[in-house]
Amino acid sequence: MMESALTARDRVGMQDFVLLENHTSEVAFIENLRKRFKENLIYTYIGSVLVSMNPYKDLEIYTKQHMDRYRGVNFYEVSPHIYAVADNAYRSMRTERRDQCILISGESGAGKTEASKKVLQYYAITCPASEHVQTVKDRLLQSNPVLEAFGNAKTLRNDNSSRFGKYMDIQFDFKGAPVGGHIINYLLEKSRVVHQSHGERNFHIFYQLIEGGEDDLLRRLGLEKNAQQYQYLVKGNCPKVSSINDRNDWKIVRKALSVIGFTDDEELLNIIASVLHLGNVQYGGEDSGSAYITTETQIKYLARLLGVDGTVLKEALTHKKIIAKGEELMSPLNQEQAASARDALSKAIYGRTFTWLVNKINGSLAFKNASVIGLLDIYGFEVFQNNSFEQFCINYCNEKLQQLFIELTLKSEQEEYEAEGITWEPVQYFNNKIICDLVEEKFKGIISILDEECLRPGDASDITFLEKLENTVGGHAHFLTHKLADGKTRKIMGREEFRLIHYAGEVNYNVNGFLDKNNDLLFRNLKSIYLSICLAKLMEILMSKEPSYVRCIKPNDAKQAGRFDEVLIRHQVKYLGLMENLRVRRAGFAYRRRYETFLQRYKSLCPDTWPNWDGRLVDGVSTLVKHLGYKPEEYKLGRTKIFIRFPKTLFATEDALEVRKHSLGMSYSQKTKYRKMRQSAIKIQAWWRGILACREAKRRREAANTIRRSVFIKGFIYRHQPRCPENEYFLDYVRYSFLMKLHRSLPKTVLDKSWPTPPPALVVVRYICHESVIKTIIDSSRCEMRDYKMVASEIFKDKKDNYPQSVPKLFVGSRLSDDCANIIHPSPQYAVPVTKYDRKGYKARNRQLLLMANSAIIVEEAKLKQRIDYSSLKGISVSSLSDGMFVLHVACEDNKQKGDVVLQSEHVIEALTKVAICAEKMNSININQGSIKFNVAQGKEGIIDFTSGSELLIAKAKNGHLSVVSTAD
Ligand SMILES: Nc1ncnc2c1ncn2[C@@H]1O[C@H](COP(=O)(O)OP(=O)(O)OP(=O)(O)O)[C@@H](O)[C@H]1O
Ligand SMILES: [Mg+2]
Predict the structure, then answer these.
(1) CA-to-CA distance for 637 and 624, rounded, in angstroms?
(2) Any binding-site annotation on 112?
(3) At 748, is the pLDDT very low, low, confident or very high (cuts 50, 70, 90)?
């Protein structure tokens, strides 16, 4: 139901049948359809069900703009459309994460297949897509022409009639993009392959191949470019149809086949051609009555196309296999039997090819487990002059769909009432379960009886089947035969017929061929009850999904635009169960809407709710409807929605709204004028206030500047005077600016002398600040440094010549470059580069001395050369001069040690102080005059002689000693 329907109700009828005042009147129903059809308004709702009339002309309502109009919009906000149904299902799938299905029903030519294509197109165009999705979309769309070529035919009712039922799942990923699909086909009308009624054709593909096929191709297939040549194509005497362009369609189908991924359709075409050849196989009769084949050329082509041996094929077409006394025998067929065997083969080949094709398409659609929207396009009730097994199956299927439809509609109605806390009033409706049971019940139903008759031994026939029906279900209220009927009915019923009283009406079925046709189904599916299993599966699929319905109606039998055949339409309204549907939908309340929507629409009708209602929504709606004078029996308030029983209550409210809108419109224009004037006034005021404020600010700024200028100048003149009222402001200002500047650029180190020059009044500040900076910088390392320096002084003061030079130098933790220091782990307490003199030749080598927690180590670029545990360090010797030589004396008992170590360092005072502290050897440092003796390995002794000179020189002397000449400084 739509709000737009409420306003448009007088112009083009009701957009929703639920709003018909007289909802039980079929006349009113048809009238509404007629009104709208005349205006090309082919879509009308019954609640959420879409009723669609076939316009038999192209309407401009399927453009991209139309699609956009329906995207993400509430059902009731826009006029009825197939896109609204598609969008609604899509959105429910996305938001509620429930699988959906759209059931499209209606009789032949009503527009089911067109509707399903529109839905598919809607998804293909509006849904998000990626490159991969584009392929899937293309394949989904292209599956249509292929399936239509092989499964559709020209009938009396429809030039493009689907001769199979189709259920298609469209799959969507989590982003809502179509990513796959799956098709299930039902009940292909195979009998059409071998026979067509007058004015009808075989499946399109045969004509397309013959009309459109390239010469080379036809030659290869042994076909002529003339449909009249083929027995299977001439039965209906209708090779050409004005609305069909076979040649063009052939191109479309070939292209579609390639999109779907048939890279090589040779086999497929071989089979289609072989069916045509089979049809032309003719028989002659021998005197014995056995049939023989008179058309050798056909056999030649057939053998090649089907890839079988010619003689085997010939035998198969003229004999049947029988088993006698456990032995297989070939028994010849008579002419009639052979012809029917040939036709059976053709039907079987075609039927299997169709199933194979569907499977192939499914394979190309990459079905994954995702959210789905199913589309069911299955033929509706069929009632002909003579109805056979096919109609029986189709009508049974529709009976089931109707049951499902009523059940689910009632169920959803009931659930909504329950959710809203409104008592459910039972609805009287025609429950067609009784008819479904009559057909499908186990052991007692018509299908069971038929299966039984097919499988029982003995001479079962269509007539024995009919008799069995009379005996078993003869008493059923919805079943009748010639024998069981009264005199009046007998006149219009054949002796070979049985009648079913469907929910939609009575249909007589002729039992001729029932057994054969059922056998066909039976053996295909290993003797299981194919028909009911097949439909049970379909029902299961549909039950697991949330359904939407599209009910298609054709306006006339002449396929003409603009012609409204009332009798035909009334018939369909009945067969589609639309009145029943409306009754169920209207059983309780005609209209329901969420409180916020209702209040938003009608709030202007009550002073308490206009312009805004602040309280609870339900109270707002209650206040509003009371003010409008709703009687208690006319409405109910649920948890989130208001339910209105009769359309007239709603219409009265709508009319009141129209009136109110008018007066609101008046006051609205006045209000707009007032608002405009007020805004202008405010703007002028603001502008004027701005100007005044600017003037005042300017005045103040000037005054301040004047004052500042005179005070500042005076202050400057008196700046060297002691603080006095004249310079007070100036001095404070200067001090403030200097301190602020200093604060921003305080030196970082003690040595940094780049201080901002203080003003005379603040010179003292500089010293205070400097001291404080030194203090902060020094404070942390100060204690440690003092300790080291104390130790150095203790050891070396007045004893070693180069000690004084070390005093002003800060001791550091490492004398190595950062690169070297960082490789050593754990990091040493002290590190210094040294020169090591080997004990024999006194060769000098660059090494690093590292002081660790428990030992001193000598390394060569992070490679350990020697470790001296502090515990084995006996003593340290240096000269009194200003050289950097020192000897580490190592205890000899330690075998690992190679003797004493002779080293030299530029930072000898620092290094030895550190060694003394780390190894706690402050008292083990010997300062020697002249020479130092030290241990070379294996008890030998080495000597270093120290002398003073002008240049530092360390070399092996002729006496074998190491001679060190120290410089004076
Ligand atoms: N919405 C539409 N707009 C224009 N023409 C339409 C529309 N719907 C149907 N038609 C016309 O009606 C013809 C029959 O429609 P369609 O093939 O969809 O019927 P059907 O219900 O699928 O019939 P069948 O049961 O025989 O398959 C279409 O070929 C087309 O010419
Ligand atoms: Mg169709």
Answers:
(1) 12
(2) yes
(3) low
Q: Which residues of 716-750 are buried (b: 16+ CB within 10 A; e: fewer)?
A: eebeeeeeeebbeebbeebeeebeeebeeeebeee
- Domain assignment present for residue 275? The answer is no
Say if residue 620 carries a ligand binding annotation: no
380 is catalytic: yes
Burial of 311 per CB tally in 10 Å (0-12, 13-18, 19+): exposed
Is 539:400 a contact under the CB 8 Å cutoff?
yes
Taking the CA of residue 104 as reference, the ligand 1 atom at the shortest distance is 21
Active-site entry in 151, 165, 213, 380:
380
Q: 3-state class of 307 per DSSP?
A: coil
User: What is the value of pTM for the model shown?
Assistant: 0.66
CB-CB contact of 260 with 294 (8 Å): no
Catalytic, 158? Answer yes
Residue-number span of the structural domain to which 840 is assigned: 803-967
Amino acid at 858: I
| Residue 106 marked ligand-binding | yes
Shared-domain flag, residues 13 and 128: no
| Average pLDDT of the chain, as a whole number | 86
408 with 419, same domain: the answer is: yes
Is 318 buried (19+), middle (13-18) or exposed (0-12) by CB count in 10 A? buried
108 Cβ inside 6 Å of ligand 1 = yes
Structural element, H or E, at residue 50: strand 49-53
DSSP state of 196: -
Sign of CA dihedral 55, 58, 62, 66: negative
Phi-psi region of 834 (alpha: psi -120 to 50; beta: other; left: phi over 0): beta
Question: Does ligand 1 have an atom closer than 6 angstroms to the CB of 109?
Answer: yes
Check which CATH number belongs to the domain holding 620 and give it: 3.30.70.1590
Of the residues 44, 79, 108, 609, which is catalytic? 108
pLDDT in tens, 707-746: 767 777 777 778 778 888 888 878 888 878 877 777 777 6
Same domain, 201 and 350: yes
Rg of the chain on CA atoms, in Å: 53
- pLDDT confidence bin for 865, thresholds 50/70/90: confident
Does the active-site annotation cover 399? Answer: no
Check if the beta carbon of residue 922 is closer than 8 Å to that of residue 791: yes
pLDDT greater than 50 at residue 526: no
Residue 111 assigned to a binding site: yes
Q: Is residue 188 part of a domain?
A: yes
Residue range 610-636: mean pLDDT, rounded: 91
Please report which confidence band the pLDDT of residue 211 belongs to, taking 50, 70 and 90 as the band edges.
Answer: very high
**C-beta of 918 in contact with ligand 1 (< 6 A):** no
Which residue's structure tokens are 């001296």?
A: 868
Ligand 1 atom with the shortest distance to the CA of 106? 21
**pLDDT, tens digit, for every residue of 558-569?**
999 999 999 999
Through-space distance between the first and last CA atoms of the chain, rounded to whole angstroms: 111
CATH number for the domain harbouring residue 445:
1.20.58.530
- Strand ranges inside 842-929, DSSP E: 844-851, 855-860, 863-869, 873-879, 885-890, 901-904, 925-928
**Per-residue pLDDT tens over the stretch 479-498:** 999 999 998 988 889 999 99
E-strand spans in 715-776? Answer: none
Whether 528 has a pLDDT exceeding 60, the answer reads no
Query: Residue 193 C-alpha to ligand 2 middle, in angstroms?
Result: 18
- Look at the chain and report how many structural domains it folds into: 5
Q: Are 644 and 633 in contact (CB under 8 A)?
A: no
Q: In what helix (H) or strand (E) does residue 180 lie, and over which residues does it extend?
A: strand 178-186
Q: How far is the CA of 153 from the centre of ligand 2 (A)?
A: 10
Q: Average of pLDDT values for 201-224? A: 96
In this prediction, residue 72 has a pLDDT band, given cuts at 50, 70 and 90, of: confident
Does ligand 1 come within 6 angstroms of the Cβ of 508? Answer: no
Can you give the pLDDT at residue 99?
92
Query: Which residue among 54, 88, 158, 409 is the active-site one?
Result: 158
